[in-house]
């Protein structure tokens, strides 16, 4: 009986460690990514720690607003391990998002990260959709200073509803490499394309509409 309890406690501890973070815990102070290495691992190879520089842990690319002159009226400036090599193995990254008046960050998901967004300026209507079968939209209008969570893997979006003014947000993501899948681009803009017959049936659309969407994305 005592053995069983011990086993249960051990199991519980093992599980809580295994699931404590979505990405493995670091085994050293840091592991600045060596982009030149040809070795393929889950993550990126560490460069010699003696060669680490302050700039490996630094990012200035979010000082300036992103260029929002595009079809959706928004620009995401990422600060993940690709831009900040010192993030390697740490399970965290950030983005700056700029919005033109009435701009959107279109429905998308991050396969490897939960996101917590903070509005710095303006007013955003944001939301995410729960998984099947409910597909419930959970949404909120945020003012400057407000924060909102987008759970890992769920489709979410932001819409600048601030009476014709620009908006700015920053967000933290629980992965050094969150990944982004923009729904419209992935479905209608894949390379090579998904057969239009598949999309016509899946979206219950006229084939011409599907083919038109495929030319847009
Ligand atoms: C990677 O290669 C570039 C160009 O050869 C070099 O400047 C840079 O220092 C190298 N980085 C590392 C981490 O070795
Ligand atoms: C912003 O992007 C648009 C479209 O690509 C381009 O025409 C414009 O020159 C860019 N503006 C700046 C300031 O870079
Ligand atoms: C939106 O902005 C315009 C122009 O600045 C102003 O006249 C109007 O009252 C504003 N509307 C709201 C709802 O804030």
Automatic annotation (TrEMBL):
Compartments it resides in: Secreted, Extracellular space, Apoplast
Binding site for oxalate: 105, 110, 115
Disulfide linkage: 31-46
CDD domains, sorted: cupin_OxOx (cd02241)
A GO term for molecular function: manganese ion binding
Primary location: secreted
Similarity comment: Belongs to the germin family.
Lineage of origin: Eukaryota, Viridiplantae, Streptophyta, Embryophyta, Tracheophyta
The protein's name in its UniProt record: Germin-like protein
Keywords for this protein: Apoplast, Disulfide bond, Manganese, Metal-binding, Secreted, Signal
One GO CC term, this protein: apoplast
Signal sequence range: 1-22
Sites where the protein binds Mn(2+): 108, 110, 115, 156
Residues covered by the Cupin type-1 domain: 60-211
Superkingdom assignment: Eukaryota
SUPFAM superfamilies (alphabetical): RmlC-like cupins (SSF51182)
Cited InterPro entries: Cupin_1 (IPR006045), Germin (IPR001929), Germin_Mn-BS (IPR019780), RmlC-like_jellyroll (IPR014710), RmlC_Cupin_sf (IPR011051)
């Amino acid at each position: 009986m005592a053995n069983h309890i011990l086993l249960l406690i051990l199991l519980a501890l093992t599980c809580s460690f295994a699931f404590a973070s979505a990405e493995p815990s670091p085994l050293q102070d840091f592991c600045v990514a060596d982009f030149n290495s040809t070795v393929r691992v889950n993550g990126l190879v560490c460069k010699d720690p003696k060669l680490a520089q302050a700039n490996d842990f630094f990012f200035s690319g979010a000082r300036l607003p992103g260029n929002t002159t595009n079809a959706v009226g928004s620009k995401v400036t990422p600060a993940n391990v690709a831009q900040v090599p010192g993030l390697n193995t740490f399970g965290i990254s950030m983005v700056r998002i700029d919005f033109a008046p009435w701009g959107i960050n279109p429905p998308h998901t991050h396969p490897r990260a939960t996101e917590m967004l903070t509005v710095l300026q303006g007013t955003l209507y944001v939301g995410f959709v729960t998984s099947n079968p409910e597909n419930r939209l959970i949404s909120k209008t945020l003012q400057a200073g407000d924060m909102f969570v987008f759970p890992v893997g769920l489709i979410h979006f932001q819409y600048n509803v601030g009476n014709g003014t620009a908006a700015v947000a920053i967000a933290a993501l629980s992965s050094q490499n969150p990944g982004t899948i923009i729904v419209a681009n992935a479905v209608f803009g894949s390379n090579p394309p998904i057969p239009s017959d598949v999309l016509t049936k899946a979206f219950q659309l006229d084939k011409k509409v599907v083919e038109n969407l495929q030319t847009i994305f």
